[in-house]
Amino acid sequence: MSQYAFYLDMSRCTGCKTCVVACKDAYGLDVGVAFRRVYEVVGGSTTKDEAGCISSDCIVYYMSLSCNHCAKPVCVEVCPTRAMHKDPDTGFVSVDTEKCIGCGYCHLSCPYSAPQVDPRKGHSVKCHGCAESVLAGDSPVCVLSCPARALQFGPLEQMREKGVVAEVAPLPPASHTLPHLFVTPCRDAQPSESDQVVVGNSAEVQ
Amino acid sequence: MISGFETALGEITLVLFTTLAPTGALAVLCMGLPLIFGSATDRDIARLNKYLCIPLVVSMVGLIASATHLGNPANALYVFASIGTSPLSNEVFAAVLFLASTGLYWLYSFSEKAHRTLLRIWFIVISFTAIAFVVSVGFAYSSRTIISWHMWQAPVAVMCNALVGGPLLTLMSYACAGCQLLNKRKGVQLLVVSVGAFLVNAIVYVLQIRDVFELSNSMASVSELVPLYWWALFAFVVLVGAALVLAWNMIKRLPADPHEEAIVVASRSNMTLIVGLCVATILCLAGIFIMRFCFYMSHITVGLGV
């Protein structure tokens, strides 16, 4: 079985969200539905001392995230109809819409919030890795659109060589689902489960 | 600030399902005990069988409500593909077994030649399916990544809910049936189960809230999602407490001797009894509903899910 993976160079990502918009545009996604989201991770504070000197240790960095087509996908584990499945040949995790009942269990379980139930369609929807394009030798839309060339996609071994397994906040420790996402952490990146940073745009990505 | 209210409102039909169905299933089980243990006359059995429709309908309303939250119910038969691997499939399978066996039993019980031994064996089977159903509801959303639900208190609370509400619904169904089984001794026995389960349930909720309030992920903490969790528990205690007091006030008037049954059935006080126990059951279900709503509000996963 081959397996594909994403790679994100966090030191390059500017949080422009072109990847989000390109994906929504390519697949005609409705308001409220997104296969990719950019999380704005913020931390630190600005203080003023007795002398009136203002100092700041504020940080911000971005995490562009879609489905990681995990090796141990919890969405597949919990799916009652086996609609959510991992392709044995490509490793892509995708939804068989002919079987999905739209119960939302995949959405409730995924620690990356990747699948969601599209109320208009009545079934789960998620990033499918632009499988057709990839198998034809092209790259996913999000990768092609990234103006900073921060995002890449390819065979697992190639992506692994570029970075480390994504275990930076706001992502959970990789042990839960073994995500196929590798990153080059930026200078301010905090480890998973760090209480030093929060998601600053939660209303946008929820 | 993120609130869990939208999540729970989005799953309101599941809140209703997990409130009604386990209570109905436990009441079905309780109603069958006199038949299983041979402590009822044929006349009483006939009445109980007839009024078994009350807890059965309560369970079915819950199940129908749960089906309405599906985006595409037309594919529902595929649910049986993951029995044994998906907790949700296990729950649906247990629900189908319970409702099918109880529904068919109810229909068969109207037969003029209904065989008592067969009814008894059938009800033993129903009892096992009811227990399996309640347990499966408790574990339905026990996914290893949903940290606020994947804890021992979640299934125990559902089972306690069933043990609190089930006996009250049974008492109400007995009263509607007007059968000889409804005497003070039986009433107290059922009420003791309910009170005991209520006390355990309240303790389990205290432990659950204490534990989930420490949980958070990158998006939110449970204390943000369910800020009024302790007040909800207070409402649960008040509502269920009032239900139990009301139920006690109803059953303490019942005759101690089961042979005085005719007096109960024929008198106007039977209507008071039915209404009183009906109100008690509704109060109890309202308390359970509030806690189930908070349970869905508290949903968070490791990482980013809220």
Can you put this structure into words, describing what you see?
The complex is a heterodimer of chains A (206) and B (306). Chain A is α+β, with helices and mostly antiparallel strands and 206 residues long. Chain A has a single domain (4-44, 57-205), classed as Alpha-Beta Plaits. Chain A is 20% helix and 25% strand. Chain A contains seven helices and 13 strands. In chain A, the strands form five sheets. In chain A, strands 10-1-12-11 form a four-stranded mixed beta sheet. In chain A, strands 5-2-13 form a three-stranded antiparallel beta sheet, with no helix packed on it. The two termini of chain A are 34 Å apart. The relative contact order of chain A is 0.26. Chain B has 306 residues and is mainly α. Chain B contains twelve helices and no strands. In chain B, helix 4 (53-67) packs antiparallel against helix 5 (87-108). The longest helix of chain B has 29 residues, at 184-212. The two termini of chain B are 12 Å apart. The mean pLDDT of chain B is 92. The A-B interface holds A 39, 41, 65, 74, 77-83, 98-105, 107-113, 117-119, 121-124, 169-173, 176-177, 197-199, 202-203, 205-206 and B 2, 11, 69-73, 75-76, 78-79, 81-82, 85-89, 92, 141, 143-146, 217-220, 299, 301-306.
Task: Please summarize what this structure is.
The complex is a heterodimer of chains A (206) and B (306). With 206 residues, chain A is α+β, with helices and mostly antiparallel strands.
Tally of DSSP β-strands of chain B: 0
Radius of gyration of chain A: 18 Å
Strand order of the main beta sheet of chain A, please?
10-1-12-11
The low-pLDDT segments of chain B are none
Ranges of chain A where pLDDT stays below 50 over 5 or more residues in a row are none
> Largest sheet of chain A, described in full?
4 strands, mixed
SSE pattern of chain A, N- to C-terminal: EHEEEEHEEHEEHHEHEEEH
What percentage of residues of chain B falls in helices of 4 or more residues? over 70%
Relative strand content of chain B = under 5%
Please trace the helix and strand order of chain B, writing H or E for each element.
HHHHHHHHHHHH
Which chain pair has the greatest contact? A-B, 47 and 35 residues
What is the residue-mean pLDDT of chain A, rounded to a whole number?
A: 96
Oligomer: heterodimer
- Overall, the morphology of chain B is globular
Largest sheet of chain B: none
